[in-house]
């Protein structure tokens, strides 16, 4: 009997739902970003710093995944934007079905930017498409500059690498040049930003990346103007 391995079936069902989500995001002109990192690299901190300066009318929503607790959703809810915690129930990654369920009754017409914080793990989330436009991998300088070589699939599939916690560089043996070189070895041309979510250093380059990608996604007449996008999402025009 020709049996399709279970893992393959699960992944192809996931791809089907992710495809539906991607079509929906495209129909509503939503930029969806999937943030992946090991636990503690600073995904929630990056989202906090991203949401912090925005006005209440900024059309952003956040989903945050964890195996247990709604701590991250509570951290992000302080900024007043729609946020939902996804409890993965023991799974080491989010899947498309979880995202579809979590979107629930949200009116997608009211969202321009959907930020999804995945479960902390540098392996499993990479295999599960969530319908996102881009995967963003966050690597903190406390994790070692060899990680792109150890987890190549994640760095290969990412559209952007954010090196976080650069304020700690004086205290840890992390070679920024080596990290860049390793990342580019597994993914030539990968965009790389260096930031500190604690001091705010480098976050301007992250906001510029976001504004650039939002400009490409949003098509309405009002939003088409890069200055309008930047006023809304970067805090400057
Ligand atoms: N020194 C320093 N600590 C950071 C930075 N970003 C995050 N942290 C800290 O790292 C820890 C884990 O951050 P968190 O955002 O919860 O990571 P997550 O598990 O990837 O969501 C927290 O104690 C943060 O305050 C940074 O740029 N510099
Ligand atoms: Mg978190």
Q: What key attributes describe this structure?
A:
237 residues; alpha/beta; Rossmann fold; seven-stranded parallel beta sheet; 9 helices; 7 strands; globular; binds guanosine-5'-diphosphate; binds magnesium ion
Outline of the structure:
The chain is α/β, with parallel strands linked by helices.
Describe the structure.
- It is a single chain.
- The protein is of the alpha/beta class and 237 residues long.
- The chain has one domain (3-234): P-loop containing nucleotide triphosphate hydrolases (Rossmann fold), CATH 3.40.50.
- 38% of the residues lie in helices and 16% in strands.
- Strands 3-2-4-1-5-6-7 form a seven-stranded parallel beta sheet, with helices on both faces.
- α3 links the parallel β2 and β3.
- The chain is globular, with a radius of gyration of 18 Å.
SSE topology:
Elements: H1 6-27, E1 31-36, H2 43-51, E2 60-66, H3 71-77, E3 83-87, H4 96-103, E4 113-117, E5 134-140, H5 147-150, H6 152-157, E6 160-164, H7 176-186, E7 191-194, H8 203-217, H9 226-233
Parallel strand pairs: 1-4, 1-5, 2-3, 2-4, 5-6, 6-7
The structure holds guanosine-5'-diphosphate and magnesium ion.
Residues 37, 39-45, 120, 164-165, 167-168, 196-198 line the site of guanosine-5'-diphosphate.
């Amino acid at each position: 009997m020709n049996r399709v391995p279970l893992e393959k079936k699960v992944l192809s069902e996931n791809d089907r739902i992710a495809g539906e989500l991607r079509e929906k995001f495209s129909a509503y002109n939503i930029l969806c970003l999937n943030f992946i990192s090991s636990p503690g690299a600073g995904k929630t901190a990056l989202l906090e710093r991203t949401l912090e300066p925005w006005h209440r009318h900024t059309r952003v929503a956040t989903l945050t995944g964890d195996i247990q607790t709604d701590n991250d959703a509570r951290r992000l809810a302080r900024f007043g934007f729609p946020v939902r915690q996804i409890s993965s129930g023991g799974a080491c990654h989010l899947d498309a079905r979880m995202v579809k369920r979590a979107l629930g009754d949200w009116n997608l017409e009211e969202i321009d930017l959907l930020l999804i914080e995945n479960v902390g793990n540098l392996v499993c989330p990479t295999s599960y498409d969530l319908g996102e436009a881009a995967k963003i991998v966050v690597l903190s300088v406390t994790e070692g500059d060899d990680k792109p070589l150890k987890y190549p699939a994640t760095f290969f599939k990412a559209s952007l690498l954010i090196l976080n916690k650069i304020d700690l560089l004086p205290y840890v043996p992390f070679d920024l040049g080596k990290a860049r070189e390793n990342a580019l070895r597994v993914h030539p041309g990968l965009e790389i930003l260096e930031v500190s979510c604690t001091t705010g250093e480098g976050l301007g380059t992250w906001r510029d990346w976001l504004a650039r990608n939002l400009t490409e996604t949003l098509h309405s007449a009002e939003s088409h103007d890069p200055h309008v996008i930047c006023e809304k999402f970067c805090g400057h025009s």
